[in-house]
Amino acid sequence: LLLSQSGDEAQATTNKKIKKTLMASACSNLGTLRPEIEIQYYQKALQYLQPDDNFQLRYSLGSAHASRQKYQLAIESYKSALLVLVPNHHQYHHKKKTLQNLYRVSFHHIQTNLYPNGFTSQEQMITALKQVMGEINYQQLVVSTTNG
């Protein structure tokens, strides 16, 4: 009887995970189909996932925010996507593209909100980028652009 209950509990846990994954997928797909409210669907989809899950959804959320010039939210989403990206050679292209998009939205954010009158030096610009993007992300971007 005890073994049966453990099996039932395991099955119930598996069923819950499957249901959450399907719900997240459905919300993500609806976001893709309905650009006018895609952010709401992407955020809803994230509620169904584990905190360390789904790079693509976080990346899409960053792109949706960027297209609406919500740069701070885009920065947060791209950083979140980078944190959940599994480091392997298959993901290199995704990482590079995400770092490039993070750079673009960070630069727009800096120009719009932090230095609307421009930079006084290249050093000031680089320092601002490191602060907004994060030092590690900035360094990884530099490496990815010099290595092709």
Description of the molecule:
- With 148 residues, this protein is mainly α.
- The protein is 78% helix and 0% strand.
- Helix 1 packs antiparallel against helix 2 and helix 3 packs antiparallel against helix 4.
- It is globular, with a radius of gyration of 19 Å.
- The model has no long low-confidence stretch (mean pLDDT 81).
In short:
This protein is an all-alpha fold and 148 residues long. It has helices at residues 2-33, 38-47, 55-67, 71-84, 92-114, 122-133, 135-146.
List the defining traits of the structure above.
148 residues; mainly alpha; 7 helices; globular
The share of residues in helices is: over 70%
Give the uncertain stretches in residue-range form: none
Rounded average pLDDT: 81
Largest sheet: none
Radius of gyration: 19 Å
Number of strands: 0
- Category by helix and strand content: mainly alpha
Task: Please outline the helices and strands.
Elements: H1 2-33, H2 38-47, H3 55-67, H4 71-84, H5 92-114, H6 122-133, H7 135-146
